[in-house]
């Protein structure tokens, strides 16, 4: 058992006065009650928060300045420990509304500053208590800049996060667990997070007008295949005015068609698209063949590409943040987008009857595609923008327009 007496002080620029430091009162002297151990043996001490115990996963970083509750509850983050690069996380507490799922999301969170008392009229509880309730393990007081640079240099490492109030850790055992984690490549995590039963969804999004004036679309039916869907995507779909039914990710094409969809939606989700694609791709292929409009987001985009015969690969560090510029090649417009993906479609592997429609202005990687001979399109990023900028909401209008014209 190895534990230092105190959390090493964080490097803070000399020009910042002591009392202006985020954790001036707590940074030094406190006994570490949490630790992150990477598979290569790197150890970062901190103060544990949320649930006690340990959780293994891929360590990634998200650069969003707001929206931590949506991020932590996004099922696409299953199997991942999130490092927040923004130093102050938790200061508006948590509430009952800003969640993307009630099921599993991220398995750990790493913060720079300790969480302050929540300050918001919407706050129902402290992030620490909320994380505990969700069984989510966290760590504060970590030099998140150093960790982010480490991830940028070497790619997202596997690691284990541990919280023990008594400050007792078996580092060798933790390292062994981190090393034993196989990594996200080849992992079908969607099956752990998608719904088990078909249900209907009718909550709309008030910031988009709550579906007002779209009563005409009530005759249309969208069936959303859930691979780990975010609630705000379902709100955006319901906002089109159409009826929305959600089915589990392993539903057969026959069962989807038996519901009489006018359009099919392929959701976001965690893990490797190639692994989930083993059962999802044949279904997507069959649905494309029917000529019905299909719209995919993130994992849904990646598996649609696989269904077209294209390839996906793991990215080095991935895209996770709320300020990613994307160019819509069909209009020439640039939109600022919310993103969360660690795999990406190789556009050069798309077949002749499909084309790349969107591209990342950060690194030129693929952000969207469409078929040229079918009403089928998808994007890699998150147009539902939860959290993040709402520039891309137009894609839900594109989808309902396609549904209308093909009904
Ligand atoms: N948000 C998502 O749907 C993520 C898709 C996939 N799991 C990835 O990491 O690339």
Automatic annotation (TrEMBL):
Source species taxonomy: Bacteria, Pseudomonadati, Pseudomonadota, Alphaproteobacteria, Rhodospirillales
Binding site for L-glutamine: 76, 269, 271, 299, 302, 340, 342-343
Source species of the chain: Zavarzinia compransoris
GO biological process assignments: 'de novo' pyrimidine nucleobase biosynthetic process; 'de novo' UMP biosynthetic process; glutamine metabolic process; L-arginine biosynthetic process
Function: Small subunit of the glutamine-dependent carbamoyl phosphate synthetase (CPSase). CPSase catalyzes the formation of carbamoyl phosphate from the ammonia moiety of glutamine, carbonate, and phosphate donated by ATP, constituting the first step of 2 biosynthetic pathways, one leading to arginine and/or urea and the other to pyrimidine nucleotides. The small subunit (glutamine amidotransferase) binds and cleaves glutamine to supply the large subunit with the substrate ammonia.
Region of interest (CPSase), ranges: 1-220
Keywords, sorted A to Z: Amino-acid biosynthesis, Arginine biosynthesis, ATP-binding, Glutamine amidotransferase, Ligase, Nucleotide-binding, Pyrimidine biosynthesis
Pathway linked to the protein: Pyrimidine metabolism; UMP biosynthesis via de novo pathway; (S)-dihydroorotate from bicarbonate: step 1/3; Amino-acid biosynthesis; L-arginine biosynthesis; carbamoyl phosphate from bicarbonate: step 1/1
PROSITE patterns: GATASE_TYPE_1
Disordered as annotated region, ranges: 1-29
UniProt name for this protein: Carbamoyl phosphate synthase small chain
Compositional bias of kind Pro residues: 1-11
Family: Belongs to the CarA family.
Catalytic activity reported: L-glutamine + H2O = L-glutamate + NH4(+); hydrogencarbonate + L-glutamine + 2 ATP + H2O = carbamoyl phosphate + L-glutamate + 2 ADP + phosphate + 2 H(+)
Database matches in InterPro entries: Anth_synth/Amidotransfase (IPR050472), CarbamoylP_synth_ssu (IPR006274), CarbamoylP_synth_ssu_N (IPR002474), CarbP_synth_ssu_N_sf (IPR036480), Class_I_gatase-like (IPR029062), CPSase_GATase1 (IPR035686), GATASE (IPR017926)
Keyword Transcription regulation appears in the UniProt entry: no
Active-site positions on this chain: 298, 382, 384
Domain Carbamoyl-phosphate synthase small subunit N-terminal: 32-162
EC number(s) on file: 6.3.5.5
GO molecular function, one term: glutaminase activity
Class of this enzyme: ligase
Oligomeric form and interacting partners: Composed of two chains; the small (or glutamine) chain promotes the hydrolysis of glutamine to ammonia, which is used by the large (or ammonia) chain to synthesize carbamoyl phosphate. Tetramer of heterodimers (alpha,beta)4.
